[in-house]
Design goal:
With 380 residues, the protein is an alpha+beta fold. It folds into 4 domains: 2-70; 77-161, Beta Barrel (Thrombin, subunit H); 170-266, Thrombin, subunit H (Beta Barrel); 281-374, Pdz3 Domain (Roll). The protein is built from 7 helices and 22 strands. A hairpin with a 2-residue loop joins strand 1 (69-70) and strand 2 (73-74). The relative contact order is 0.10. Mean pLDDT is 84; it is low at 1-12, 17-21, 27-35 and 50-70.
């Protein structure tokens, strides 16, 4: 009995020792597995940190490249390619002098300078100075106050002075597209500014030159434009002309306007050969933009369009359009306001064209056909 009891105690002790040894071995195993997992996780984290650091460095390099270049052309290269084509225009007026900008263009094998009408209007002793400092007397070949364009010839300048710019259609411009202006603001010759197209199809007025008539289909840009920039080129990212800088709004910031290149291309032949342009169509009405408040006041069924306040007697619309009519369509295009109406007439019509207008008259919508006239000479 004693021997059996001792054997039982020995067996129990052996089981306890084996259990303890198992716990020890299991603990060591778990520690090893855990250690390996933590070590592997640390390696993965280190690898990820390296990859993130690499990506950050790559993104910074890409960002800098985008800032420096526009459509593959650096601003430095663009400037160097066009600066010798931009000129300084000076002249005397009855109130002092004018100092502005222009640029060289070749049309039908003739070297000319393009600028604004308001730059050369009423001037004497007109001169053009090229980027190399050589100056020559100049003569106005043609002007159009309704698009604020002028063509100037340079007297006695050798052909080597003329480095013409390329003019492309402005019809492909989009809001947000980068543009560059080069000119002579405040006499600071050859200054470059950058910005973007901020709106298209605007209308502006220049009472001193165009009278009461609007200059239509104008480019609005955030590119800084100052006195002296007038007449200089507005360029796209490839360095081609898409407009001529024309005006600023007093006391504004980042609000300038340019005559679109399509207007230049449409008029230049007439300006050179006849000295003027007579292709501005004339509807013979005056009015203002519709809006919600006006619609509520007059109980109109639309809150957009161009409301007629005057029909010129003897004009194209006399007897066809009435005071109070709201023009909401020209041809197949919706007319929201005066900008739309003036830009459509400028871009899509000529004097003598028969134009169908969609008009809200009272509670009805009617179609009215008008044969467009030629815009009268400005009264200033």
């Amino acid at each position: 009995m004693m021997t059996s009891k001792r054997f039982t105690q020995a067996s129990a002790s052996m089981l306890i020792l084996l259990f303890a040894a198992g716990l020890l071995v299991g603990g060591v195993g778990i520690y090893y597995v855990t250690y390996m997992q933590v070590n592997n996780l640390g390696t993965q984290v280190s690898t990820l940190q390296s990859q993130v650091s690499y990506l950050r460095g790559f993104q910074n390099v890409t960002y800098q490249t985008i800032n420096i270049q526009q459509n593959g052309t650096s601003l430095e290269n663009l400037y160097n390619n066009v600066i010798n084509s931009v000129v300084l225009i000076e002249g005397d007026t009855s109130t002092g002098g004018v100092q502005a900008s222009g640029f060289v263009y070749t049309f039908a094998d003739s070297n000319i300078v393009l600028t604004n009408n308001h730059v050369v209007q009423g001037t004497s002793n007109l001169s053009v100075t090229f980027s190399d400092g050589n100056g020559y007397s100049a003569t106005v070949l043609g002007t159009d106050p309704y698009s604020d364009l002028a063509v100037v010839s340079v007297n006695g300048a050798p052909a080597s002075e003329f480095k013409p710019l390329n003019i492309v259609s402005s019809s492909s411009l989009s809001v947000g597209e980068p543009v560059v202006a080069i000119g002579n603001p405040y006499g600071l010759v050859g200054s470059l500014t950058t910005g973007a197209v901020s709106a298209l199809g605007r209308t502006i007025t220049e009472p001193a030159t165009a009278g009461a008539y609007a200059i239509a289909n104008v480019i609005q840009t955030s590119t800084p434009i100052n006195p002296g920039n007038s007449g200089g080129p507005l360029l796209n990212a490839a360095g081609s002309v898409v407009g001529i800088t024309a005006a600023i709004v007093s006391n504004s910031q980042g609000l300038g306007f340019a005559i679109p290149s399509d207007t230049i291309l449409r008029e230049i032949s007439a300006l050179i050969t006849t000295g003027s342009y007579s292709g501005h169509s004339y509807l013979g009405v005056e009015g203002g933009d519709m809006n919600y408040a006006t619609a509520q006041q007059i109980h109109a069924s639309v809150t957009y369009g161009f409301q007629i306040t005057t029909v010129v007697g003897g004009g194209p619309s006399d007897g066809k359009l009435h005071v109070g009519d709201i023009v909401i369509g020209l041809g197949n295009q919706t007319i929201r306001n005066n900008d739309d109406l003036a830009s459509y007439l400028e871009e899509h019509t000529l004097p003598g064209d028969s134009l169908t207008l969609t008009v809200v008259r009272g509670n009805s919508q009617v179609q009215v056909t008008v044969v467009l006239g030629t815009r009268p000479a400005p009264t200033t």
